[in-house]
Amino acid sequence: MSREELTKIILPEEKIPKFWYNVQADMPNLPAPGLNPKTKKPLTPNDLTPIFPMSLIEQEVSTERFIEIPEKVREIYKQWRPSPLFRAHRLEKALDTPCRIYYKYEGVSPVGSHKLNSAVPQAYFNKEAGIKRLTTETGAGQWGTALSLACKMFDLACTVYMVRISFKQKPYRRVFMETYGAECLPSPSDRTEIGRKVLLEHPDTPGTLGIAISEAIEDAVQRDDTNYALGSVLNHVSLHQSIIGQEVKLQMEMVDDYPDVVIGCCGGGSNLAGIAFPFLPDKLQGKNVRLVAVEPAACPSLTKGTFAYDYCDVAGLTPLLKMYTLGSHFTPAGIHAGGLRYHGVSTLVSQLYHDGLLEAKAVKQKGVFEAAILFAQTEGIIPAPESSHAIRTAIDEAFRRQRRRKKQKYCLQS
Amino acid sequence: MSREELTKIILPEEKIPKFWYNVQADMPNLPAPGLNPKTKKPLTPNDLTPIFPMSLIEQEVSTERFIEIPEKVREIYKQWRPSPLFRAHRLEKALDTPCRIYYKYEGVSPVGSHKLNSAVPQAYFNKEAGIKRLTTETGAGQWGTALSLACKMFDLACTVYMVRISFKQKPYRRVFMETYGAECLPSPSDRTEIGRKVLLEHPDTPGTLGIAISEAIEDAVQRDDTNYALGSVLNHVSLHQSIIGQEVKLQMEMVDDYPDVVIGCCGGGSNLAGIAFPFLPDKLQGKNVRLVAVEPAACPSLTKGTFAYDYCDVAGLTPLLKMYTLGSHFTPAGIHAGGLRYHGVSTLVSQLYHDGLLEAKAVKQKGVFEAAILFAQTEGIIPAPESSHAIRTAIDEAFRRQRRRKKQKYCLQS
Predict the structure, then answer these.
(1) Å from A123 to nearest chain B CA?
(2) Residue-wise pLDDT tens for chain B (414 aa)?
(3) Residue B149: its chain A contacts at CB < 8 A?
(4) Least CA distance to B108: which residue of chain A?
(5) Which of B73, B115, B377 to mutate: most A Cβ within 10 Å?
(6) Cβ of A129 under 8 Å from any chain B Cβ?
(7) CA-CA to B322 of 20 to 30 Å: which in A190, A261, B67, B174?
(8) Which residues in chain A touch residue B10, judged by CB atoms under 8 angstroms apart?
């Protein structure tokens, strides 16, 4: 069937990638090494063993191009993978654009987001290492939900520190996590020293991912049977999410097409990395493909931040990473895209942006929601506030190209 | 791949059925005719033209075995069809059962339920007939959401009367419908005469589907450009939902399996009809397959109702249908399975139950929720309260068979 007729492009199950793609194998400049928060010297694996299993630490620094996905993880992936790539025919018609717009739909996962792609291997590798319990942070709740389910699958206990503003905005999310057997606390909480300190100084704080990360790490380091899991920012998370973009490339091949622009929303960077990184080798080989990160104007880490060493959390418990950052004490407004309220960005995304291989745009909430409603009314799927940032930008690009009367293809991530 | 290895059974897109299956072609006894609510004489097509287009009225009484799905409807179906059939390996393991349990997952539709299968053709046929606006009722909100989206697809206005208890329990559902451009009112409302009357007599009523139907019909008959749409009970709705069971049969063939028991939750009957009716011809030809309807103990239409002529609504605006009913003034407790809070059952389901071709069970809310949590923690998908009735029964059947040490296969609908 031709690409003009197809709405849903489904990869045959046997073509689900068996390897994750590691962008570090292809980057012209690797990110600067993380620094030990106390000594300020380059990290050693031993600095990370109190909170991560060695297998994930190895993935963090690996420069192998392809890393095999364990059999057990692949078995679980099959419940929702391969995820569909949709051609947005009805949106295109509403925009009256000659551009071809595609979107990769990770909403078919049982938790409704892409986060399970990394939660499952993280739970798996921790289980293999003999760990009994994981702690984590969550913004909008997507990551916390995914890790709750992944922990249940591997019989691990799970505690989630959820940014307070999202905890209040989305009461059902707590129930979601509890249904999977996890514990979910609003952050800052009185469970940790850092939580109590923040509450004392700023009793009305909406919370931040930086605070929630501090709480989850403080909790994890105190127990030998407990590790910490991060849902974005780190290299191994981008690695796991690479399955998305690898599938997209195969799906676009099936309809004999290739994107001019690949767009993803960007908080910590895992969603963007997932769809965009597998296109980098083509770009480096001269293919004319743009990779675009979209962030909220209320939290413009890439477009307004500085490229410097900073902590991932508010208490300075994490390594210092060289990244675009608004400062680890930055508290963004309580916008609805809770998953994008993060002061920093993955070092991989940051380095690629710094090297001019990736673009960034900041968009405002009102325009994002208008785009979301148009998308819902045409494509039928109500997109998350986070994904809607990518949709807004795809629409803007289509309008811009139309003025230039040029056909373009967009691929965005929801 | 063998059925022991497969988790997700995906039908090739070209095998999506092109025809709906009409169970009326095969029933040993057709349901008694509907009666005009005023004259009490058998309905004529003209009795229904004030609220339905002729094409749907024809489907209502047709005894053709297969009715072609219009091209435009099939195009839209392809966004979420074929839906996956899952083998519940992890649930089976938790139950330590030798039984094979499969579930058909309609949650991949953009509105998250099977209701869109009928909403799309209903909107399509009304649009073809020149109608500009549809009114409807909704319990838990699934049908109202589906019709809101379907109306948006065909550029029809849409007003949804939502049972008050569900309107209160699920505030996000209203926003869901409004996002698709529909209007959603709590029922009883002050928009209609019947709504005002009920509010005056019972200001604290939780509402019922029977009241909401009366309001939607009263609204529809007053405007020439407006028709009414019903999300269950009627024959044409069961017809449209037959695509589910037809797909299931093809999917089970793909793994060389066949169910001993087919289970669906039952309110008005559309969910059950969708999965179960396509198995009836096999049963009539001697195949040993049980069809099981599961209803809430709080609203036991089949198991405790009487088989008699009754109204579909509280005000007596609808035709009288011969069905199992608790009486059109029955107000069930405000259980969470809002989609199953209906006093009657489809005449087709009722007749098949009466003729011993279909079984019925009533289950209590607490056991249903326990089953839902076990399902969520094993299969990862958090099921709707309605679908959880089928899950409870599948688990009970597996336990029962285990005591008899017999392998069985179950197919249930979520």
Answers:
(1) 15
(2) 456 677 899 999 899 999 999 999 999 999 999 999 999 999 999 999 999 999 999 999 999 999 999 999 999 999 999 999 999 999 999 999 999 999 999 999 999 999 999 999 999 999 999 999 999 999 989 999 999 999 999 999 999 999 999 999 888 999 999 999 999 999 999 999 999 999 999 999 999 999 999 999 999 999 999 999 999 999 999 999 999 999 999 999 999 999 999 999 999 999 999 999 999 999 999 999 999 999 999 999 999 999 999 999 999 999 999 999 999 999 888 888 889 999 999 999 999 999 999 999 999 999 999 999 999 999 999 999 999 999 999 999 999 987 776 677 777 775
(3) 380
(4) A108
(5) B377
(6) no
(7) B67
(8) 10, 13
Across the interface, whether the CB atoms of A380 and B10 are under 8 A apart is answered no
Q: Which residue(s) pair with B307 in the sheet?
A: B324
- Whether residues B75 and A373 touch (CB distance < 8 A) is answered with no
Chain A and chain B share a number of CB contacts under 8 A equal to 55
What is the spatial distance between Cα B207 and Cα B165, in angstroms, rounded to a whole number? 6
For B79, the closest of A7, A179, A373 (CB atoms) is: A7
Q: In B236-313, where do the E strands start and end?
A: 261-265, 290-296, 306-311
Longest pairwise C-alpha distance within chain A: 63
Inter-residue contact A209 to A165 (CB < 8 Å): no
Distance of CA A207 to the CA centre of its chain: 19
Fold of B3-22+66-112+237-413: Rossmann fold (3.40.50)
Determine contact, residues A269/A233, Cβ cutoff 8 Å.
yes
Strand (E) or helix (H) holding A238: helix A235-254
Distances (CA, A) of A363 to A208, A296, B168, B360: 20, 5, 34, 54
Rounded CA separation B102/B279 (Å): 15
Residues 21-80 of chain B with CB under 8 A from chain A are 75, 78-79
Of A172, A377, A380, the CB nearest to B79: A380
What is the complex's ipTM, to 2 decimals?
0.93
Contacts with A382 from chain B: Cβ below 8 Å: 110, 176, 179
